[in-house]
Amino acid sequence: MYNLWTILAFVVYLGAMIGIGVIFSRKSSNVSDYFLGGRGMNSWLTALSAQASDMSSWLLMGLPGAIYLSGLGEAWIAVGLGIGTYLNWLLVAKRLRKYSAIANDSITIPEYFQNRFDSSSSALKVTCAIIIFIFFLIYTASSFNAAAKLLNTVFGINYTLGLTIGVLVIMLYTFLGGYFAVVWTDFFQGMLMFFALMIVPIIAYGVVSTDFSQIVHSVPGNPEYMSFIRGKDGNIYSWQYIVSNLGWGLGYFGMPHILVRFMSIKSADMIRKSRIIASVWVFITLVASVFVALTGYAYMSGTGMTMFTDAAGSETIFMLLVQKLTPGFIAGILLCAIVAAIMSTSDSQMLVTASAVANDIYKAVINKDANDKQLLTLSRIAIIIVAIIAFLIALNPNNSVMSLVSYAWAGLGAAFGPTMLLSLFWKRMTMSGALAGMISGGATVIIWKQFLGKTLLVGSDGTVLYELIPAFVISIIFIVVVSLISPKPSQKVIDDFEKVNSVDL
Fold this sequence. Notes:
Mean pLDDT: 83
Largest sheet: none
Low-confidence stretches: none
Number of strands: 0
Number of domains: 1
Helix content: over 70%
Structural class: mainly alpha
């Protein structure tokens, strides 16, 4: 349990986040401001908000927890995510910024897809919005789950009460401030996550440095704890294991809450600077997260503490190090980094989901003449509804942050990743192809996870191939085949595609 200084740090931090929401509530006067910040974000805001919203509680809880339990081999995920981050910024960011503006100034990902193919039908937009709604509910629930675990571990607050407090704070500032509030809070949260992840493993290493090498190389029951290529049994990892972990990087191409950051930057020419900032941030934080796990294991083992044996316990290793090694107010500030990771992801996801409900379902299907005031009101109502449903999903305290994130990541990555890449770079792609790709990708994730993955392509080490991999491939196949058998795109679609190559926006 922590003292009053720790509590004060939390109160100040949460109050500051709500304050930002109140301040920016006055700037969100129309849907473009509320969902996209009026396309006025600078390089630093774009980069840090994108990466902070990306990494979530997974960075401080899920990844360290997985490595703590199983060893350095789990860091293949970090490698995949690092590569995926860079490629997303390199291949998608600039082109999407230009294309979304050319395609009738699209302000949401579903709207971009519909305008990209100049379709009068709402089928693509609505399908996209439904997929976002389903998988983001799971993703948001993982963030709420992490928030409740944090408050329970730090303050001994009942899980359900902690969950309620976390949901209310996140919902409130997102409700009030929209995209401006989300981006600015994410910026500060990204900075806090960065410094916390740098400081904590350094302090821990200083405490255990004399015993570090001996401890992590002699883990009971896992002599290969520090191996990248061998598991607990000493056998080399199967290709399914390595590909599954590296394959996480594919998910970036289909994450609406990250992709929308590219659309909001003031100029496409600012993307290069953002890419450098984002890549450096990701590389350092991922490496630091790995060291949180290793130094945490060494500290607990070296001090004779009871070791964690399951995900629920191991995912609290960052919190434990902070608790044991730092004083009250400093501990509170460092633990706010977890709050920052949670908030920076869930607020973005709630906002994207709300935009899908209001702009891409309600306006597209129910009331095509809806004005900005009506859409803003509905968006705020949608944020409340999303928060309530995600709250209900997160009520089970035994849910692993990692398992919830992996499922949602796969669903979004497979449904939108291939569609996004090919829509940006393949002129011949059609709306029918895009629709087929989305549906086949999302459906394959569910089918593979529940049924096929348990029997097909199972590795020699028992690894079930991560559902994102086959779903991504199948989605590409469906897009290409269906596009080629569909009528060619209209001249306007071709002209817009060519315009992206020649115009700077």
